Amino acid sequence: MEKFTVKDLNITYNGKNRKKVYAVDDISFELKAGESLGIIGESGSGKSTMIHSFLRLLPEKTAAVTGHAYFDDIDLLNCGEKELKDLRWKEIAVVFQKSMNSLSQIHKIGTQFEDIYRVHYPKARKQEMKEAICNLLEIVNLGPHVYQMYPFELSGGMQQRLNIALSLMFHPSLLIMDEATTALDVITQGQIMDEISEIEKRFSITRIMITHDLSVVASSCERILVIYAGRLVEYGKKEEILRKPLHPYTQGLIQSFPSLYGKKEQLKSIPGTLPDLSQTYQGCIFAPRCRYASERCFKIRPQQYILEGDHKVACHKYGEKKDE
Ligand SMILES: Nc1ncnc2c1ncn2[C@@H]1O[C@H](COP(=O)(O)OP(=O)(O)OP(=O)(O)O)[C@@H](O)[C@H]1O
């Protein structure tokens, strides 16, 4: 894959009482091969909905998806089932926070990994397979003895590491991680992310990850997408966003985490709560919580202003600067 392009993505759920929930509202961004993206935003802002849509994993009856997610020129949202099936796992791999039940409890781990390995390499020799699998186990900090074990003999965190290992088995072009390392201790998480970053460089893997841990984004992602109530508020290079966040929401989000750069400062939370996504809003959806909001912000939805490079921000403040 050379690039992954999300264009005009809109997702609504048909909630209870036939009320529509606007979970993802007009999101577009592009990633080149080998880039890594961290998606951040409060709980309920549409992060999981968005990335699940890329693999068409949303409930068909309740979720309505429009727009495009191009894996090169294949539109994952609109291509045929067969085309999507061919890409899953080998080209696009996904790990969820609770992927713990994906392995059978009654078969040895090594045997299950071998069976999966053979799906794409049917002629692989036993020794070659074992080496490749032990290598994978090592990447996620598990010793070769795990080969002979059953999943139920491992802790939850160790099982999650197996799932991460499985996702890397075929060196996918696109790796999607939804809170995949949240259940792990900080040291293991750090080691695994370091290894993943290494493999990504070697095989030019593009990674999209959701995490609530900004330090993981800071240490392992090149780009950041900030979403609020289903809308893109800011997108750009990690250094730009973490050192000089432009959108008041991004500023608030970063101030609510312990300092990553510079001097230690008191943590601040963002007053107010996420809006009701079953309502439609005329202006900027963040305006009711924004300390800089003016009358215009409540009336007109800000467009996404592109500043330096491809740094995007959806805030009237930056439109005014451009108009000056
Ligand atoms: N199956 C569903 N039916 C109706 N509404 C849903 C459904 N799944 C999610 N939603 C709504 O869509 C919105 C976005 O949810 P989503 O899980 O994508 O957010 P998130 O940012 O991933 O949250 P978290 O960080 O807590 O995982 C929320 O308002 C949620 O209530």
From TrEMBL:
UniProt key word Lipoprotein:
no
User: What is this protein called in UniProt?
Assistant: ABC transporter ATP-binding protein
* UniProt keyword ATP-binding present: yes
InterPro entries given for it? AAA+_ATPase, ABC_transporter-like_ATP-bd, ABC_transporter-like_CS, Oligopep_ABC_C, P-loop_NTPase
Sequence ranges assigned to domain ABC transporter in this UniProt record: 6-254
For this UniProt record, the keywords arranged alphabetically read as follows: ATP-binding, Nucleotide-binding, Transport
| Source species, domain of life | Bacteria
What terms describe the molecular function in GO for this protein? ATP binding; ATP hydrolysis activity
UniProt-listed SUPFAM superfamilies: P-loop containing nucleoside triphosphate hydrolases (SSF52540)
| Family annotation (Pfam families) | ABC_tran, oligo_HPY
Q: Which SMART domains does its entry note?
A: AAA
Gene3D superfamilies recorded: P-loop containing nucleotide triphosphate hydrolases
| Source organism (scientific name) | Dorea longicatena
Tell me the GO BP annotations in alphabetical order.
Answer: peptide transport
